[in-house]
Specification:
Blueprint (H helix, E strand, L loop, with lengths): L14 H7 L2 H17 L6 H25 L1 H6 L15 H22 L2 H22 L6 H5 L1 H4 L1 H10 L4 H24 L1 H7 L4 H26 L9 H23 L9 H28 L1
Length: 302
Amino acid sequence: MTTRTFTAVALPADWRDFVALTKPRVMSLVVFTGLCGLLAAPVSIHPILAFTAILCIALGAGGAAALNQWYEADLDALMKRTAGRPLPAGRMERQSALHFGVGLSAFSVLLMGVATNWLAAATLAVSILFYVLVYTVWLKRITAQNIVIGGAAGAFPPVIGWVAATGDVSLLPLLLFALIFLWTPPHFWALSLFVRSDYAAAGVPMLPVISGPRVTRQQIALYTLPMSAAAVAPWPLGLAGALYGISAAALSLAFILLALRVLSNRATEPSGMKPEKRLFAYSIFYLFAVFGALVLDRWLIA
């Protein structure tokens, strides 16, 4: 699919527009999972270095989000949900967004390497490049599996936090990566079901647009099973205690039940998609709660 030509007469941007480029609501989840990965690590790290590592994760996520909006300004202009962003609304020049995104991304990687270690910096760089090049530039416009493969970008933060603290990678952060990777499709497909018309108008081949609501609901239900297994796995593997295991199991069971309600829904219009909206909202709470339970469990064991 070819990129549409996007033109807008940009007005002078203020600081709020630059903040909006970083997608603060999305960043909050990225920062939290990165922090949990760092706190769950079996070693202590100086508070200033820990703060710097989390700051780097936030800056890297913000830079990647800015580059995403720079590249997708044409798509954002066609969707009601995103038309008010700084670029499609004409509040900022595209070149400003590009420079801002590149600058934040590069600075975050360099600071991470200097403050913690270069493996953490390299992992952060890979996550940024994966989101920008693999998901945004390559996958999003050409395949309905865009969010499946591209979801790996959002799964890196707990690994980055862990590596910043320890300097290496072990099984637990890989399981946390798998959890977010498997959580991403049902999370975004629930959203895309009730904003399907937006994606269709912009020509984005999201699964509900290409395969329809029925197939999307089936895929949501299917993905919740391995996601739940990845969430609970640290407990039987001896990487987390009973507090985490029971919490993850209960939270995952609720996720599965909501996914089954989505599966049984037959609505094709947003007004009838309350189960999808509930699942989307719960999916955000779910990830916060599972990662929070892990940190609490690790602290109690320690």
